[in-house]
Amino acid sequence: MWIRCSMLRDLRGAPLWVLATALLLSFAGGTAFAADLVKVGHVAALSGASAQSGEAITRGLALAIDEINEKGGLLGGRKLELIQRDDESNPPKGLIAARELIFQEKVAAIFGGIDTPVSLAIVPLVNKEKTLFMGVWAAGTGITRNGANPNYVFRVSAVDDDVDIKLLKYANDRFKAKKAGLMLINNPWGQSNEKGLIAAAKDNPVITIAGISKFENNDVDMVPHLSRLKEAGADAIILVVNAPPGAQMMKSRERMGWTVPVVSHWGISGGRFPELAGPTAGDAHFVQTYSFFGKLSPAGERVLAALKKKYPQIKGPEDIFSPVGTANAYDAMHLVAMAIEQAGSTDANAVRSALENLKATYQGLIKTYNRPFTPENHDALGPNDYIMVRYEGDKVIPVE
Amino acid sequence: MLVSSALISGLGLGSMYGLLALGFHITHAVSNTVNFAQGSTMMLGAVLCFTFWVTFHWSPTLAVIAGLGLCAVWGAIVERIAVRPFVQRGSNAWLMATVALGIVLENVVLFTFGKDPRGMPAGLLTTNSVVVAGIRIQLLQLLIPVVGLLFAAAIQIFFQRAHYGKALLAVVQNKDAARLMGIDVERVVMASFALSGLLAGVAGMMVAPLFTISSTMGTLFGIKAFAVAILGGIGNAWGVVLAGLIYGIAEALIIALAGSTYSQIATFALVILALAIRPTGLFGHAEVKKV
Q1: Entry pTM
Q2: What does the mean pLDDT of chain B come to?
Q3: Is the Cβ pair B207, A220 closer than 8 Å?
């Protein structure tokens, strides 16, 4: 307050044109500063049951942004800036956050989070407002395959329809399962996978669907659900849900003493699944796009070293929670940056076209991306990029 | 097998609803008011037990005792600041005030305990089980209905036989007469709210190993427990607990036979139907007012 008052006292004697010039210069300076940055937004669950997923994505984006900025930024020296908003896994909150990022922050692109319902709520907005949206976790098929033309939604992550093929095949290959019982969360993500799993079972002659049971996020006891599937002859459970209700399912399975194999979509890796599920957490085998365990590629070694440096609590791969979020986000940020460079601007239409026809090859964390997107395909990863893992304590270890 | 395992699940959950609903019964019997923060108090019991046991590394026994004590204190606080000031003015605003206090508590827990759900470590009651007629039952699942029924019996006996229990009931019939008989009315009502908080704490601690612990875990439980209290006839302790068991079993059977998509619709529809047929609840009696 004292400084402000003394400044006002100093300016009292100044001529009007000096004040006006100072004011104009301050506006011009502010504009130049803002124009120097390329803002990218991130709308995800940064708190709540899936908070770990949001943190994992943040780490991947931050590492990639650090690398890009250290090399001089984009478009001749403009630094990237990450602006984050918490959707609390709530679609209306995600939509409000996306609006703010588009209209107030004027971001060049928005990165999504773990929740398919949130991403599905944002998709119509970004296509209407012509803003690039990059999914890095939510796997709902309809997120990228949304029927819009032009379509501003891309994804570096798994796709439900492809994951569903993988899950049924894995249940049969690994556990010799012939009748799968589906345990699905009762929301758009569960619906997306219900369609995908039924379609996958039609195309797979060795496994059928024994039954489908849908449950709510706050269901305490899932023994009745599992009993239905057991009665129907299920010899494997296909689980599609996030960590807390997934843990409820595992605890109910344990209470029943039913040792049926569990093959899960990756939602369970987005929270404290080992703590919540208890001793049987490791029985669930689930899909991922990346693991920091085993022999790493040069990109993997580089990112692991950068993670250890930036986050001192990370001593090794076992300390990286929700690795899929970090890996997907890291590769996605680099692909978006490449598209901005190729487009020569942050204009969404130009960046969209550049993404659909990326000329350079990118040696990423998950794989080497050689024209990852086309006008017809906005998903950079396919079934060959998926791996199966399970928890061992808090570590996520490959089982394939 | 399907029906019998649903019965076991329903008995466990139903007892939880019954325990919470007993809290509604007690305050209603003594003061004609209820604590709509009952679901939040249940959550408080689970959160405190987890914090003392897991975060502070206290012994489980001490964590349970301290948690229950604080739940009782919280119940008394609810009465003092959200019920008494309004009842004294003849206002029904305590309805909203108890709801509001429950929301305040949930948000305080949200900021202190965190938004991340936590899991209670496995203990003796969840790692050991018995097999009855081919169905595996955890010790905790057996303990929950036993605790529910014991509390109902104790409360019924207390109100009917104990001197202080009769004093509690006298308060609701005629406050002034009770005061003239030397009963400290305010203290008695506060004690009933403390007891109600304690019951909610017991429910929270017993459901915690089966569920995940978070600031919102009690919301739906509180609503269902109130439905159970009304269904059973809020003035009848046995009725309330039995209604809890009926509700829990109906819910589990509907899920087992038709999935949980329609379980809320079906169970609440059953409650409405039952109340349409018996407006005083399944085990309640119409109140007689002398004019």
Answers
A1: 0.79
A2: 88
A3: yes
